[in-house]
Amino acid sequence: MKQSNKKVLILSLTEKDDYALAEWRKNGVDTDITLKDCSKIFRAIRRIWIRLHLPFEHIWYGDWKKIICQYDCVLLHGTWMAERVPHWIRKKVGKEKKIIWWYWNKITEADHPERVLDEDCEKWSFDREDCEKYGMRYNTQYYFKSYQLPRRNVVNDIYFLGTDGGRKEIIGSLNEKFQKMHLKTDIHIVTEHKDSKDKYYSLLQTNKMDYQENLERIAKSKAVLEILREGQTGQTLRALECLFYHKKLITNDKRVKQYDYYNEDNVFIVGMDDLQMLPTFLEDPFSCISENLIEKYDCQAWLQRFNIL
Questions:
Q1: Whether 137 contacts 123, CB under 8 Å
Q2: From its phi and psi, is residue 39 left (phi > 0), alpha (psi between -120 and 50) or beta?
Q3: Strand order in the sheet with 137-138
């Protein structure tokens, strides 16, 4: 893959040790957190400050603001807490440098792109429906070919990790069906509160799982379960993890048939495929994927599609 002679900075509203930011750096791209780390009290103050659009918002920005003029392109993850950052950067770097406002989640009213000025940045999304609705440019999701899955013995049939997001009942019901088929499941639904009277209490957890442990559990499983939130469209990280790691995908996303990596040997669609055939699907071998297809979804190819490199 051709390496860039342009200097790119990726900013994300996350923790400084976020796995994705660290992996970008391994791939030769500078990263930083959009808003600097601070105590819980100051985070609450910062949230109010930004929501009210008070002056001097840049005091909350990360250390990148001191060296922003060194970069040819800045890519920001789109969120309401960063919606004034592109304008601040544009005033600092002038008109010649590229600023990209990127949505890798479905747009909500809170994160509406119309509140970010068109003259300050290019607006992109992984979701074709959002691109059509809001007049944005489209790019796929991405993953890291450089990220290696641990070598582990496969001991589970189906693995899920995700927040509740209104999906608990669907996931819990499916898990009951899987277990009646004598499939071994490893299900983790992250929620803020657990109630011992909850029907699916045993599947719930309040602590977040770090990404390395997530990879350990993927490695130990034949398939990953993906249940979309209501209204969610577009390619998902779980689908790309399965693609890169040659794991089978069980999903309720009927649009997956439109994607170039769809293969009925590797992808089981809940609500379309015969659920009784799931054990057979899991036992059958994974059909090989071309290296060119994996390359397409690697982070470097993704970056090229922004016309940065």
A1: yes
A2: beta
A3: 30-33, 8-12, 73-77, 98-103, 122-125, 137-138
Q: Are 45 and 52 in contact (CB under 8 A)?
A: no
Domains of the chain, CATH where assigned:
8-139 (3.40.50), 156-295 (3.40.50)
Q: Which residue has the tokens 């001991």?
A: 155
90: its two tokens: 């544009």
The stretches of the chain forming alpha helices (DSSP H) are: 19-26, 40-51, 85-93, 128-134, 168-180, 211-219, 237-245, 278-283, 291-296, 299-304
Token output for 133 = 């609705």
**CA-based end-to-end distance of the chain:** 11
pLDDT, tens only, 116-157: 999 999 999 999 999 999 999 999 999 999 988 999 999 999
Residue at 23: amino acid letter: E
Place of tokens 């290696």: 148
Residue 92 carries which side chain, given as an amino acid letter?
A: K
**What are the b/e assignments for 263-276, b being 16+ CB within 10 Å?**
eeebbbbbeeeebe
> What is the pLDDT at residue 35?
97
Identify any residues that bridge with 158 across adjacent strands, giving them in sequence order: 185, 223
Give the position of tokens 């800045």: 74
Please give the radius of gyration of the chain, using alpha carbons only, rounded to the nearest integer: 21
Residues 6+ apart with CB under 8 A from 76: 11, 12, 34, 82, 85, 86, 99, 100, 101, 102, 121
Burial class (CB in 10 A: 0-12, 13-18, 19+), 278: buried
